Amino acid sequence: MGPSRYDSQLDVTLHRGPHGKRGQQLVRTPHIRVPWPIYLTGMAVKLTWMVMRLAVRHPKATLAGLLLLGAWRTLTTTAAVYGWPTVATLTLAVTVLLLAAGRRHLADTEGGTRPRPPLRAVARAAVVYRRDWRAAMKGAGLTTTDRGRELLPTLLGVTTDDGHDVIRLRMRPGQTPGDYSKVAERIAQTFDVREVRVRTVPRRAHLLDLHVITVDVLEVPVRPVTAPLVDLEAVEVGIREDGTPFHLRVLYSHLLIAGLTGSGKGSVIWSLLLGMAPAIREGRVRVLAIDPKGGMELALGEPLFERFVHGTPEEIAEALDAAVDGMVKRADKLRGKTRKHVPTANEPLVVILVDEVASLTAYVQDAATRKRIANALSMLLSQGRAVGYSVICATQDARKETLGMRDLFPSRVALRTAEAGQVDLILGQGARDRGARADAISEHTPGVGWVVVDDMPEPVRVRFAHVTDARIERLLRPAGSGV
After folding, report:
1. Left if phi > 0, otherwise alpha if psi is -120 to 50, otherwise beta: which for 195?
2. How many angstroms separate the CA atoms of 389 and 27, rounded?
3. What pLDDT does residue 454 have?
4. Which of 123, 196, 280, 462 has the fewest CB atoms found within 10 Å of its own CB?
């Protein structure tokens, strides 16, 4: 047997530094002479093993390939008997029927995004992400080095739908999700996409999802929806950025809405009122509306409210005190009978709706009245959820010194903000690092915001429905005239 090109000898050298000191020992491992037949047999076995492993790991693609192979053999056999023109006609007819059935299925599907075939995800993974994966990870500083080898986070797979891709990866040892959140903008720039957000994978500490936003479906205003049957724990108020409907809980929760002037706080408020309108008409919900700005924002909906207060701070304090008294009496009545109140026409859900709450808790000149209002709101927020008293407050200023009870709101909406630091003030510590960049929302998209609720671990980007004055007027018509 002649010498092989893999033949080499054991080479051991001592590397010396620039000053003659002994450095690291470099060892070149020996290459063993392998006969070509054995080498080719080993490569064939290895290739067979790789194909079998891919077939097991991707059963859908394997099944599709087998179906295509079977279809081709059937077509060739049929063509040999009846001729290719007949086969082409039958194939075209079956294709048209399948496309028509698929379009009908999509039209009948409600509340979901348009599904994408796995082939698109495979193509995007290969053409977009795997091609630039090393450049993205190295440019973001997410690579590590082990004995001179460059190691990358492992790209495990890609899923996709309209305007939204999800890259699942395995982090390198020692890395944390925060390392990826800090460089999300660098990754987005490398992949030439709108935005990249980092999401943890439940119960899989070493895995991470990169949510890649390629198309922003929230650039278009959202039309309001009034459902005939109202679930007060899931009132439809807009859409998520993946195109699915978004719901907010009113019963057993409190909601804080914060954002600059013109950011769309009215969209949030009126979307909720519109969604609850059937329950308000039935008497299951009663609204105490408080507008310290003279009633300009909420006056159009006054027929929906059991009480509408827009006068002096003293009048507002009296209304809030009356709400606290009602809450305490209901709690006494329900004590020992139930842990959660179920709204009825006789014992409805009471919604305390306050527009620009900071003007009451921070800017009222009389200290006694200001403290009285703050105490009443704190009582409602701390004790009202279980007994059917829910508070919805809107503000431009969510700082602790202006809204001391901010942490008592389990659900929060951050619309467009002036500064990055305000995002964490509204949504909680670390929300902006997890992708909630409310300071980057365009002033041309009012109603777009980030939402954090107590049963969702990550911020959700939403656009709330735009409710026009004409829509509100239709809402106030008698029930028989149509809303």
Report:
1. beta
2. 75
3. 78
4. 123
Q: Specify the 3-state DSSP secondary structure of 256.
A: strand
Q: What six digits make up the tokens of 388? A: 């059917």
Sign of CA pseudo-dihedral 50, 56, 58, 61: positive
Give the whole-number percent of the chain exceeding pLDDT 70. Answer: 87
Residue 162: predicted pLDDT = 67
Two structure tokens written together for 153: 């986070």
Q: From 394, 399, 396, select the one nearest 425 (Cα to Cα).
A: 399
**Region for 435 from its dihedrals, namely left if φ exceeds 0, alpha if ψ lies in -120 to 50, beta otherwise:** left
Report the Cα 398 to chain-centroid distance in Å. 23
pLDDT of residue 30: 60
- What would the two tokens of residue 151 be? 């190691």
Q: Considering Cα of 100, then 104, then 106, then 107, what sign does the dihedral take?
A: positive
CB contact at 8 A, 310 and 292: yes
Which residue blocks in 31-143 are alpha helix, DSSP H? 36-57, 59-82, 84-108, 118-124, 131-139
**C-alpha span between 463 and 446 (Å, rounded):** 8
Amino acid at 292: P
Q: What domains lie within the chain, and their CATH numbers?
A: 58-108 (no CATH), 118-215 (3.30.980.40), 220-481 (3.40.50.300)
Q: What values do phi and psi take at 43, rounded to 5? A: -65, -35
Q: What is the pTM of this model?
A: 0.69
- CA angle, residues 380, 382, 384, in degrees to nearest 5: 50
